[in-house]
Amino acid sequence: MAYTPILAADSYKASHKWQYPEGTEYVSSYIEARANNSGLDLPGSVFFGLQPLLRQWAETPITDSDIRRSAAVFAAHGVPFFEEGWRWILDAHQGRLPVEVRAVAEGSVVPFNNAVVQVVNTDPKAFWLTSYLETGLQRAVWYASTVATVSWSVKRILREFWALTSDSPVESLDFKLHDFGARGASSGESAALGGMAHLVNFKGTDTVEALLAADEFYGEAMAGFSIPAAEHSTITSWGRDGEVAAYANMLRQFGGPGRLVAVVSDSYDVFHAVEKLWGEELRAQVLDIGGTLVIRPDSGDPVTVVARVLDLAAKAFGTETNAKGYRVLNPAVRVIQGDGVNPKSIRAILQRMKNDGFAIDNIAFGMGGALLQKVDRDTFSWAMKASAIGIGGHWRDVYKEPVTDQGKGSKRGRLALVRDHGLGLRTVPLDSVPDADNLLRPVFRDGILLAPTTFAEVRARVAETL
User: Can you tell me which family this protein belongs to (predicted)?
Assistant: First the structure.
């Protein structure tokens, strides 16, 4: 489906040009995550995902074909279409959107209820355009930012238990949460954008579209990595009597010095597989290949199953005690839990491991639906609202203040985001601070991407917040 911002909008946006006060010249709007409804302990949200949309705007100016197609769509759809306005953008601006977008740097963690984006039209004849673009802007920002925040929350949990139980380098955490979410995402685009948002915090993924997106939109040639891994179809195709042969085949095909191979081991009886098949029949091969076997349970209660698998693996392959007094499995064996994984279960699993004397080094996690799909715009109450309107050369405040829900009240006036060394980041009136202090920096103006950021820069900003 060919993209045009004219049709990347809710239907009712097409009629809004005629709904503003006479003489309107400018409309200024902002985007914020109003509240934390996730149940996670978070100081704010990770801002990420605006640049792909801005690149799309910059690279796909409005065309005559877009306008003619849109006019036909809206006429058949039953809503008015401001063709004259779009033709003005085509003729006067060569199809480039006459708006300025300011935003906080991607990868920043911003406390809830603060502006992270501000948008205003730059041509008074396009005053209607600011809010028209809301659909695409919100969709770009809320989803990627929410996934990045959920992923970041897991990194914080992992870091907590790493500090308590591990003496490995902190960089080992980069591969502790693997993205298993591609098949559960609502679309390939969702998998790409959400999977890329996860990679802001980690470097493990099986979502190939995310790698392509990070390269296309942020210039990261290879943002994530994976290893050979079995699934139930490849193991069960050998039959129940051939289970040990299936495992041996995985070692033969993919094992070797320095190599990792993940093998799902619960097709029949995961405890038997760990104790007898891996721990006895194939023990010598596992130890001799010089790499690491990653055993994957995939059913049952995650906390109790992981605890028992670790105990059985420890008895079969042995452990060493690290400097903090916690046991680490023989380097030839590790565990990955990819079923029933979410921030709450990760904390519970790690707490049980700590109680049992096991270091975080022994495990990694795979997260699917809870990472890319079990989020929505209400997870952090994302909203874009008009906050100021310019008429006759003067600005006046615009806001909502519903008596039925104070949480849906909106900010008023043109806004700035500043660093307050006592309170962190906070939103203030734009004219109350020097422009140099405003963290909402111009990133797009009149069809031009102004200050592209790289994936490495985004990752560095997020890392500073851990």
Answer: Belongs to the NAPRTase family.
